[in-house]
Amino acid sequence: MAAAAAAVMAAAVVLAAVVAAAAAAAQAEVRWEVSYLTLEPLGRAQKVIAINNQFPGPLLNVTTNQNVRVNVQNNLDEPLLITWDGIQMRMNSWQDGVSGTNCPIPPGWNWTYQFQLKDQIGSFFYFPSLGLQRAAGGYGPITVNNRATVPVPFGQPDGDITLFIGDWYTNSHIELRNMLDDGKDLGVPDAILINGKGPYRYDTALVPDDLQYETVGVEPGKTYRFRVHNVGISTSLNFRIQNHNMLLVEAEGTYTNQQNYTNLDIHVGQSCSFLVTMDQNASTDYYIVASPRFVSNPQWSQVTGVALLQYSNSKGKASGPLPDAPNDYYDKYYSINQAKSIRMNTSAGAARQNPQGSFHYGSINITHTFVLMNEVPLRINGNRRRTINRISYSPPETPLRLADLHNLSGVYTTDFPAMPSDMPAKIASSALNASYKGFLEIIFQNNDTDVQTYHLDGYSFFVVGMDYGLWTPDRRNEYNRWDAISRCTTQVFPGGWTAVLVSLDNVGLWNLRAEKLDNWYRGQEVYVKVADPLGYNITEMIMPDNVLYCGLLKDRQKPQIHESNSKSSAQAEAGWSNRLLATVMLVVAAVIFS
């Protein structure tokens, strides 16, 4: 008995130290005003979603384990949620910013996200997650820096440059939503934007005069870190910088084996960072290009994003043909081999000093397998929908996480099929049940003719295999079990499969979605429920004090007292520490009485 008591006291001391460390961590605190802004990215006025009058939005520049507090004021005319692509929200799905975990911020209201960047580094982005709003902007960069005690596996760059690439329509996000609701496809986009700007006039027949384009200024001989994010709607893009090698060093929070690329396919929702040395003659500027991949319509050849790389001693604008893309617009073998070449740097530390390769994922037994199949759009109840395992997800008015906390029945089910079947397709609100501390294998089977990209909130997964054809269990023999890249968004090639492995150590309800906005909007998503058998709020942060209510719980919502900039950091820090301490006490109680 005495030994047990001593063990409990020791655990309490350790947990108290965790609380103290978290409370002492420096806090990044910002306030964002989310509003419409009228711009002319393609020469005609249109409303974009801006943050603090910036499009793209401001950089959130933070460090591993730092506490972050973002007060969001919704000045739009529709509800808003901000999600944090790749930020794992450890123990804290309450802050994830998707419809399954959060009620939206009503127009005119504000809400404060508060979370810790626990054990993460790398290049990520944030964006509005509801109703195709990302098609109007609202996105911005997140850079999570190494702590000073953990060395970066390359020399300090001379500068840090963020590039957002993505397809763009002159139609508003509301008009695009209406098109999808009417069963139409969005068609060929009007342009590929780079940092919210139209293309440089590389071709006078294709690009109108007087468009504002992005110019990246550099110094000869210096090396820069380029962080590139595909934040578009549905288009895979090939990224390249004329006459310059791009040394890939990181992908979505994992340091990679360093190798040079002359071009790289970056799919919707993916992020990569490169080191690029300015080692070319400065007689002219150089093209920075993002061009569509996996498209067959000839119109796509007229839609290319072009910016300029400008040396400080440049003697003139870039001219002539753009640097070549891969040989064929539908060269799937080139792209899949390139994807397989991206591997983890197993000897480098990242969020911690121990090497990334010290977690031997390849030797862990798989406890459960999900085979998730998408196919061509299906008609369900007269509507054109997207499905996973023939289920098209419909978000309930009450978030799943709140429904669980308040023991509400009928909001959603946990009978989502873990394997494909030939059952009739249906619209449903259902989740996949997963076992806390299990080791999950997910097979994404793409039975469509387009590239798919899938993202999992709350986690990174090891991309251990991908190929064409139908996945079968014997393909496990081909898995990369040593240095597979760990990331949060993966591509699945047409008629092919991708296998990922993930350690289920983060309790919560986590969104697994198609990152292509049109597919996501039409139902190609599911929530993965990772529940602690001891009960909620044991290993999870307790519900935040400022939680919003909606749906079946709307009567609980009180009139909002708008937070002002004058609210002290001390108050915010106290709230954070109290929530974390409450969680610790629940864990200690569970240990004592177990």
UniProtKB/TrEMBL annotation:
Coiled coil regions, renumbered to chain: none
This protein's record includes keyword Thylakoid: no
UniProt domain Plastocyanin-like: residue ranges: 34-148, 160-314, 398-531
Residues of the signal peptide: 1-16
Keyword Signal: yes
Family annotation (Pfam families): Cu-oxidase, Cu-oxidase_2, Cu-oxidase_3
Stored InterPro entries: Cu-oxidase-like_N (IPR011707), Cu-oxidase_2nd (IPR001117), Cu-oxidase_C (IPR011706), Cu-oxidase_fam (IPR045087), Cupredoxin (IPR008972), CuRO_1_AAO-like (IPR034273)
Keywords tagged on the record: Signal
Family: Belongs to the multicopper oxidase family.
Protein name listed in UniProt: Monocopper oxidase-like protein SKU5
